[in-house]
Amino acid sequence: MLRLRPSRRKARDLAIAEVMAMLRGLAAHPAAGGPFASTGEIAWVNVAEHDLERAIARLSGLGYSGAIELVAPVNQESRRVRSPVTRWKGREVTTIPVWAETDEALRGNAPDRRRFLLECADGVTRPIVGYRGGVGPLEHRALPVEDARLLVNLAVPETGGRILDPFAGAGAVIVAARARGLITASADIDRALRFGLSELSNHHVVADARALPFAAGAFDAIASEPPYHPGARDAVSASIVEAARVVRKGGRIALLVAAAQAPPIRDAGPRAGLVLEIDSAIDRKGTAVSCLCWIRP
Questions:
Q1: pLDDT digits (tens, 9 = 90+) for 140-167
Q2: Continuous segment of H or E residues that includes residue 4
Q3: Does residue 76 register a pLDDT over 70?
């Protein structure tokens, strides 16, 4: 059973997709319903009993869910500790905590709390606490931790590997990827970010996402949030071809894009030889965005 974070309760389908991505290769599937349905923040995934231990070991560091619990029949122990009880399919069931993280703990790596090395307008590089992007139309890149984790978890294979963020901004995706033990690479066309991103990433380059200095098939996954400004739409659409080139066969590309940008970016995927696996709209506190995730077959 998934307990969705309050800020992402309207994105139930994506919360389930995130868990399913982390359980690739195991006998698991989404469940249409389950116990404790009266609470609006609940979703469900079924896991085969023989894969349960491996599934539990994988399920930490979620973005859209703040807790994972097992649904189990009520026994003397659960009655003793006064676990929550409900009736489901004709029997009493309770929940057993597997993983949990408070929203406050999640926010420990939020952009407004992190230190970031930034080359300032006077040419001096300074450690800035709470850097959330510049004031220009293409410079706001304060990706929330929930979304950074979601993108990484959707794109990364169960075996881990190398991940690239081609629109790295203030590095939220890189921070989330490093927390999963991945080898990270970042790219951003803004030179002012190069010191901060070099400190966060295993390898950083100043580069246009439409012309990346990496070999074909160099990465197992790509995850990014490109600029939302309408002026960036064509550049982001053109970058899909390059992303498809540098991701390996069987690798995935997960993007969060502004809803207004989504149609041409979505259409760019098939032209680059990609197959769309996830296409989900999100209302992120009044900002309409779309999560697109492709696989390179």
A1: 667 999 999 999 999 999 888 999 999 9
A2: strand 2-4
A3: no
Identify whether the C-beta of residue 177 lies closer than 8 Å to the C-beta of residue 160. Answer: no
- Where are the strands (E) in 143-274, listed by range? 162-165, 183-188, 203-206, 219-224, 247-258
Rounded CA separation 189/208 (Å): 5
Question: For residues 164-173, b (16+ Cβ closer than 10 Å) or e, as one string?
Answer: bbbbbbbbbb
Longest C-alpha distance within the chain, in Å?
70
For the stretch 78-126, pLDDT in tens is 665 567 888 888 888 999 999 999 999 999 989 889 999 999 989 999 9
Which residues partner with 287 through β-bridges?
284
pLDDT in tens, 251-295: 999 999 999 999 999 999 999 999 999 999 998 778 899 999 999
CB 227 within 8 A of CB 255: no
Strand order, beta sheet including 162-165: 203-206, 183-188, 162-165, 219-224, 247-258, 287-295, 275-284
Helix, strand, coil percent content, the chain, rounded in steps of 5: 30, 35, 35
Tokens linked to 99: 């993983």
- Token pair, residue 273, equals 């030889």
Phi, psi at 4, each rounded to 5°:
-70, 150
- CA 266 to the chain's CA centroid: 18
The answer to whether 79 touches 73, Cβ cutoff 8 Å, is: no
The H-assigned helical ranges of 126-232 are: 145-155, 172-179, 194-200
Distance CA 162, CA 174 (A): 11
